[in-house]
Amino acid sequence: MACMALQLSIFCDFDGTITTVDTGDEFFAEFSTVFDDSMARLMSGKSSVRDYYHDVVRGLRPLSSEMVQDFALRYPIDAYFADFVKYCHELSFPLTIVSDGFKEYIEPILAANDMSEVQYYSNAMQEVNGQLSPLFPNATESCSCFCASCKRNIVLNNTPPDTLIVYIGDGYSDMCAASHADIIFAKGALASYCATERIPHYPFRTFFDIIRLMKNGLEQKKFRPRHQAVLLRKKAYEIE
After folding, report:
1. What angle do CA 229, 233, 236 make, to 5 degrees?
2. Do residues 68 and 50 make contact, with C-beta atoms less than 8 angstroms apart?
3. For 4, what's the count of Cα atoms within 13 Å in the CB-facing half-sphere?
4. Ramachandran region, residue 119 (left: φ > 0; alpha: ψ -120 to 50; beta: rest)
5. Which of 22, 76, 87, 181 could bond to 165 as cystine, CB 3.0-4.6 Å?
6. What values do phi and psi take at 70, rounded to 5?
7. What is the model's pLDDT at position 142?
8. Which of 176, 193, 172 minimizes the C-alpha distance to 42?
9. CA neighbor of 124 nearest in space, from 103, 148, 151
10. Positions in the chain whose pLDDT score sits under 70
11. Given this model, what pLDDT does residue 209 score?
12. pTM (2 decimals)?
C-alpha cells in the first residue's frame, strides 16, 4: 500500500518508557551510597546531570553480576513493548533506544526480556585506577539539555535523509530530542513540556496505545514533516 512507502526512524527512551519505572533511579537508589544527597542537589539545580552521575557512580557499592541480574529481573518492561518491536520489524522501521542511563543495567534488562537485538545508545561506566567513573560517549558541547549525553545528536546522526523522525519518551532528558522530531509520543514530564510549548504530540500510556496510533496515522496518511522540527534540525546540523 502507498502508506507503507513512508520511511520512519523510531527512537525510544528507556527508563520509565520501556520500563514501567525509572530503572536508573532505582539502580542508584539501591546500589549507590550517595543517591539521596546527589539526587537532592540535582533536583534543586545545585548540580548538573553530569555531576550527578559522577557522584552516584563513584558512590556505587561493589556489584556482582548476580546482583545486577537480580535487579534486572525485578523491574518489568511495558507489557506491549515486544509487540511494538515486532510491529516495527514488520514494517522495516528501524527502532533505536536512546538513553541517558547506563548500559550496565540496560543490557541485562533487555536480555532478561529477550530484547538483546534492539539497538541502543547509552552512557557506560569505566574503571580508572580502581575507581568507577561514568563515560558519556554521546556528549556534545553544542547542547545544554537535561542530559549527560545528547539524545538529539544520536537521533540526527542515525536518521537517513527524507525520513520522518518518531520519538517516544516520558521525561526531562527527552525534551531536546523530541523537539527535533516530526512525530512525538509522550507521557509524564515530556507530555507536559509538549503541551506547554504547544508541540504537537500523541499522549500514551502503554505501547499498545502507540501501536494503535501509528497504525491509524499510517492508514490515514497523517504523518508528515513537522515544520518547526525541520528548522531545528537544520540549525543543529549547522552548529555541529
Report:
1. 140
2. no
3. 7
4. beta
5. 181
6. -60, -40
7. 64
8. 172
9. 103
10. 1-4, 141-146, 240
11. 98
12. 0.93
